[in-house]
Records
---
Amino acid sequence: MTGKISWFGLASGSSVLEERLILDDFNRDAVNQSLAILPMPETPSFLKAVRPRFDVHVFGQVVSTNATLWAMAGAQAGTVAIAHTQTAGKGQRGKQWESSLGGVYLSVMLEPDWPADRAAQLTLCSAWGIVSQFRWLGIPAQIKWPNDIVVAGQKLGGILSESKLERGTIARAVIGVGINVYNPVPVTGVTWHKLTKVKGKEAVASLSEVAAAVLLGIWRGVFYRNHTDGKSFTDAYQSLLTNLNMPVVLEGKTLRVVGVTEAGHLTLKSSSQVSRDVNQTVDQLVYIKPGELSLGYSHTDIE
């Protein structure tokens, strides 16, 4: 589907949203134009001269963009499904992603040919790439382990990766992303529109440009991971992690977040005294797989 958005599901008093969306033709041509001109970070230096191609498909409403892309005949690496709304968007741990009009909901197909044990890295490198791209555009985003994009502790977006294996390798994968732009959000969420209003200007205004920023970010993340070693990439990911040094209560004990492994496991550290008579502590590391622990949100309003 291309052309103007059909105005279904808009609440009364939504004139600002309508005005912004009417100005923004959220369709294939607009997304492709944004992909061609949107600035990208200049570092790492080997990424700055390469710009990917995508096969973009825009729909009015779908069940979920991940499901749409998996079912799309002929979909291959670089195929993209974007929807104005989703009726059953997917989140982590089986949760539904609220997908009302005014957000960006998209999925991109990859053919990484990675070992199966690197599946979690698809989420990590997508998060790193998207957050890096957003920061370049003036949005001070960070990563909340393992798959959320946050600003000042509030959720701007989320990522869901799904993989299909063949002979022990990831033959195909779909990276699904939802970004709050003009859509309603809970108190723990924030929108791109609110963030750019705070700054007194619009860093990137249209839904098409935000979608293009997400796609370029995913591509940068995967490309970077393919061209660097695991430690270098993990260090880059951790530099954008909002959870570092955060206290976490696990089985009645308080631990601290000290990093993430190359496999995507959260690393927690606890310290205990050897004995009452010996003034010496022993550090113990605990590794948590994605999905085993929810770090939660606190409401911090951005004025």
---
Amino acid sequence: MQTLDFITPLVDDPFVFGQIAAANSLSDVFAMGGEVINALNIVGFDDCHFSNEILREILRGGKDKIKECGGALVGGHTISTPEIYYGLSVTGRVNPRKFWSNNTAREGDLLILTKPLGTGIIATAIKAKFLKFEEFRDAIESMILLNFYAVRALAGLKIHAATDVTGFGLLGHALEMINDSVSFKIYPSKIPLLKSALKCLDEGLIPAGSYKNLKFIAPGVDSEPDIMLCDAQTSGGLLLAVAEKDAARALANLKNAGYTSSAIIGEVVARAEHKIYLV
């Protein structure tokens, strides 16, 4: 499998930015139940206003995450750009019999979300200088946590479908998971949220992408959701459709692997009028 992604800086620390961007790029492989073989750096760097030391720190952060999941950094390409961006082209592999598709959920499955929502709102608040570092540390820890460990924690369990939650928000990616045979019941009260994001939400610090997501998902949902469920995530968690008999064990394994906010947030039911019901 091959995947590619890159982002612009979310934080002032170049090493942490490199870690977040790499974790975000690597996530697509883990969302398919795969493992990373190698990666190539993709870099746009403003060398007119920033020193090469900043660039080195970004790349060091990215390499740190590639190494953490057992991958090899095999090169890359850097160009001069007016805005900094960084990401990876990633090569991964997966046993075809263990591949996680994103649209094969089955009636009776339970839906598990592995990370809390709110990183899009946090990114907006950081850019607006609304928060001090200590106030959004929970978001940083969430974004740099690789989904790699979730794949290992779920080995041997029946994962019928999976996706990572990124730019389309929770409900946008949930819609991608639905096939002609099923609908999702999602329980908003069960969805984990970053504490720092709730503070920002009260101040109206919501990215434009989240409103676009809200408009996009509206035809498939039975009622208008809270904007947080449409928040455009960076390096978000996995949304998993897990066989009911394995759900409790999956949740325990995920928490033990470091995904302490993991929660069962819904269930897969027979296809009804709407694709998603908020209950």
---
Amino acid sequence: MTDLGRVLVLAGGLSHERDVSLRSGRRVAEALRDVGVDVFERDADSELLSTFDTDRPAVVFPLLHGAQGEDGAIQEVLALTGLPYVGSPPASCRQTFDKPMARGLLERAGLNTAPAAVLPQSTFRELGATPLLEAIVTRLGLPLVVKPARGGSALGTSVVRKEEDLPSAMVECFAYGHVALVEQMIDGIEIAVSVIDTGDGPDALPAVEIVAESGTYDYHARYTAGTTEFFVPARLTPELTEQIKRSAITAHRTLGLRDLSRTDMIVDSAGTPWLLDVNVAPGMTETSLLPQSVRAAGIGLGDLARDLLGVALSRAA
């Protein structure tokens, strides 16, 4: 066994991404056991805090996705209980999970984001959906990407290529949140760059190029084996590869993140990277992007997880 002490892998929760979280948790727990770490797994439920009284871990690896795991709530709980954990501080999680807020910070840092509109569901009720939707198309054009302002795993996200499809896309979006982020769609190569920091500063791992069979990297394409082709490292020029790695590190630092993150981008036909999203709790499933980058870098997932836990313990000390 390692000298980390007893490690809790926290997964599950009640968000729409519960199943993905459980799969991530199982994979990381198995990888840690393979490198000799004493691990136990727990769901994030009403008995969690009482567990800390009877079976208190030395350090926690939270692998909760969606609102409960990425909006800063579970990080705040762990901070309140005095438990060291892997991942970003609560305030950084909150501002990153709020896509419009994160966009503003990243734009001020000099990174490219697509033209967009942010509208709550109540505005459509009060001012009328038809004129608002017409104004969106007039201002941003087509195609568009409609997504919840807070959320992950592409849940509630739609690509709109025809104006008549926009109302149903808004309904789908509002099923997962009360505020919609409507972005001008950027055509190009979809790229994900993971950033890790095991104590020597943030470092970008090999970029993953994503080619979804359906043309859209939606929830099904993310978590169904065989529906998406990945190229690691991405098929980009060395100069562009370095540029997107710098962009991912800038995003990580700008948003105040620590330990690990993943930045999703589109590289257009002119070679310009456009930021789509930054994730504070990247998935760790068999089809997730960060583990593919870790493997391409020649790092074992268990070794990386163990090192991040060590950093968390050192931070607490």
